[in-house]
Amino acid sequence: MSEADVHAYTVRLELVDEPGELLRALEPIADNGGNLLSIFHERGNVTPRGHIPVEVDLEATEPQFDTIVEALRRAGVNVIRAGAERYSEELTVVLVGHLVETDLSDTLREMQEAGGVSVADLSLSAPSDPAGASSARLRVVASEGRTAEALDAVRAVAAEKDLRVVEPLTEGSA
Amino acid sequence: MKLAVLGAGDVGGSVLELAGEYGHEVVAVADSTTAAVDEEGLDAAAVLSRKRNRGGVGSAEVEAALSADYDVLVEATPTTLGDAEPGFSHVRQALERDRHVVLANKGPVAERYADVRALEADSAGTVLFEAAVGGAIPVLSTIAGLEGQVTAARGVLNGTANFILSRMAAEGLGYEHVLAEAQDLGVAEPDPTFDVEGTDAALKCVILANVLFDDAYTLADAAVEGIADLPGSALELAAEDGRTIRLIGEVTDGTVRVGPRLVPEHGTLAVSGTLNIVQLDTTHAGRLNISGRGAGGAETASAVLADVGRLPGLE
User: Fold this and answer.
1) Average model confidence (pLDDT) for chain A?
2) Which of A37, A64, B295, B298 counts the highest number of beta carbons within 10 A?
3) 186-245 in B: which are within 8 Å (CB) of A?
4) Is the pLDDT of residue A46 over 80?
5) Looking at domain B145-293, which CATH architecture does it have?
6) What distance in Å separates the CA atoms of residue B308 and residue B188, rounded to the nearest whole number?
7) How is domain B2-136+297-310 classified at the CATH fold level?
8) Using the beta-carbon criterion (under 8 Å), do B250 and A169 form an inter-chain contact?
């Protein structure tokens, strides 16, 4: 798949509790060029209609995403909510450096305060050697068309704290 | 065509060995201090064996190779920054004698592109440099074949950095460990700075920018960040999210940028090992991807000899 023009989408599905249902629901995503990021299969949780809710995060271009939703519906998969996040855009960055020593929560606060940016999700991996660099993966949500600004804000805060930013290959290449 | 090969390392040596297969003959060869010249054509095996056993390719001065009666000067001396010497002077001498030049050396076309083009404009000779970008991959001839339709280029242009990142991701090993392993395997140089700091990839991107935007970019115009000391945890976190990290060079909207970037783990640009890949955006033809070996003596020599085959006749 292409790296440019790709956005992250969340699709919420309702599946009948039968063997093979999940696979059947995922096939149209892969078949139409979507890149599956995560699947949250809430088996313990049943909807009032007795179905199992599944939340799928995927990456696709906008035309691919439209095709995927259409294909899901055509396959009889109940799509509850498709691309509710469509008018916001997500991007993932990895920060590297002395994240803890430079006050990670302050780093995140500064990014949020820079405007148009909210950090939706964070995973931190600290080294066993305290002198070593740690890494954090951030999922950043920006309003539509504002990812470039969001990335600028991340870069500015990181530069101030002497952190390296591994950026996604999406910005500027659309 | 009669070739004079400047530089007798992996690439120059392979050009010497393979030229005959392509219907050319090498009449002169030089390393940094010595030269061998024979207007009847040199014996590749004899020259290379002398270099291995006695040091030096022959008993003549380097100047003798430069003034030999050749049609094409093949510049395969090591890439240097700034004034790009001695490669640039070799190019100048050949063009002033109305001879063709084929470069594997990135220096002259990355650091002094305007000077090279000015010399070419006053010469009957032509300058080609396919081997300087992406080794065996026909990047520049593809761009030329697309008749000005290519709007942007990006990709993995350094095999050493790609080897290190893909090993780190696959084995969960640290940077220093994988670098040492790469050095043992001969994939990384004893001094890996040029590769791991992104300089080599940036020079290739600068050359791409010069060709795509018909301008005179130099290394100073590129934003360059390397992969040195990237912790393994950064690759682990990327992998948890279906991504990986590659040293990506980008030439787009008039800018040149090289740095570690997140790409989909199984995406087109996430090539493994020492492979290179170049992705071209075009106006009418969509996106093209070409991958292959970005380095190696025979691989790079094949690009040099393909260029020799594209040259127009002299006179």
Assistant:
1) 82
2) A64
3) 225, 229-231, 233-234, 236-238, 240-243, 245
4) no
5) 2-Layer Sandwich (3.30)
6) 29
7) Rossmann fold (3.40.50)
8) yes
DSSP conformation class of B312: P
pLDDT at position B242 over 50: yes
Return the amino acid letter for B43. D
> What single string gives the DSSP state of each residue in B120-148?
HHTSS--EE-GGGTTTTS-HHHHHHHTTT
Q: What are the domain boundaries of chain B?
A: 2-136+297-310, 145-293
| pLDDT (0 to 100) of residue A150 | 85
The ipTM is: 0.87
Of residues B251, B42, B239, B247, the one with CA closest to residue B140: B251
Better-predicted residue by pLDDT, B80 or A121:
B80
Chain A residues within 8 A (CB-CB) of chain B? 1-4, 6, 35-38, 59, 92-94, 96, 123, 125-127, 132-137, 164, 166-169, 172-173
pLDDT at A97: 94
Q: What pLDDT score was predicted for residue B202?
A: 98
Looking at residue B56, the DSSP 8-state letter turns out to be S
Q: Is B128's pLDDT higher than 70? A: yes
Q: From CA B271, how far away is CA A51, in angstroms rounded?
A: 41
Enter the tokens of residue B72: 């094409």
CB contacts of A133 in chain B (<8 Å) are: 229, 231
**What structural domains does chain A harbor?**
6-82 (3.30.70.260), 88-166 (3.30.70.260)
Quick one: B8 exposed, middle or buried, by C-beta within 10 A (0-12, 13-18, 19+)? buried
Least reliable range by pLDDT among A38-47, A147-156, B98-107, B262-271: A38-47
- The Cα-based distances of A128 to A30, A102, A134, B109, B233 in angstroms read 38, 17, 9, 46, 11
